[in-house]
Specification:
heterodimer; A: about 110 residues; mainly beta; 7-stranded mixed beta sheet; 11 strands; about 55% strand; B: about 110 residues; 6-stranded mixed beta sheet; 5-stranded antiparallel beta sheet
Chain lengths: ~110, ~110
């Protein structure tokens, strides 16, 4: 079965460090989503790409977060500098459009000390 | 106030029971998603609907656009249905996904 692959699965680092999370969407999917999940806020949409172009990143703190798709097989989410409040599980999902079902990766569990 | 409200927040049922989880929203939407998150953390998309009803196995999702309400039903519940069920709505603008806080379901044998 085709799957969305996220790396790393777990990341623990000290505050101030740069964090890069990667996502390989399902081949052929043209939309990619980044989500953050915390106990307090639940799931939040951070950014959304269609055909590698960012269409909505209004949910993302712009001063420290950046999301890119260098090519159709790779999406990245970077945090620089990281802060303890960034600790969360970050999910990537891909699909064939925002009005289509989304396939989720297993998530990256990030802990900022 | 969250634009998407789910009820109940927590639900415990015995195996075999019929289960209903509700989702109400306050914005105009073009579609609604039901997601399932297993205890291990993985998220699966169960349904995406914009009108009427969809059925997949023992799961049924309905939506009433006029009343801004959707329900997820599980017939003949089983312990493996234990998970968090999350409702998410896609606004009419087409870009913003708003999530409910989730309903934690435990089905006991």
């Amino acid at each position: 079965d085709a799957r969305v692959t996220q790396t790393p699965r777990h990341k623990v680092t000290e505050m101030g460090q740069e964090v890069t999370m990667r996502c390989q969407p399902i081949l052929g999917h043209n939309t990619v989503f980044w989500y953050r999940q915390t106990m307090m806020q639940g799931l939040e949409l951070l950014a959304y790409f269609r055909n590698r172009a960012p269409l909505d990143d209004s949910g993302m703190p712009k001063d420290r977060f950046s999301a890119e798709m260098p090519d159709a097989t790779l999406a990245t989410l970077k945090i620089q500098p990281s802060e303890p409040r960034d600790s969360a599980v970050y999910f990537c999902a891909s699909g064939l459009g925002i009005n289509q079902p989304q396939h989720f990766g297993d998530g990256t569990r990030l802990s900022i000390l | 106030k969250n634009e998407v409200e789910q009820s109940p927040q927590n639900l415990t049922a015995q195996e075999g029971e019929f289960i209903t989880i509700n989702c109400s929203y306050s914005v105009g939407i073009s579609a609604l998603h039901w997601l399932q998150q297993h205890p291990g953390g993985g998220i699966v998309s169960l349904f995406m609907l914009s009108s009427g009803k969809k059925k997949h196995g023992r799961l049924i999702a309905t939506i009433n656009i006029q009343e801004k309400h959707s329900s997820l039903h599980i017939t003949a519940s089983h312990p493996r249905d234990s998970a968090v069920y999350i409702c998410a709505v896609l606004s009419n603008s087409g870009y913003a996904l708003n999530f409910g806080k989730g309903t934690s379901l435990l089905v006991t044998p």
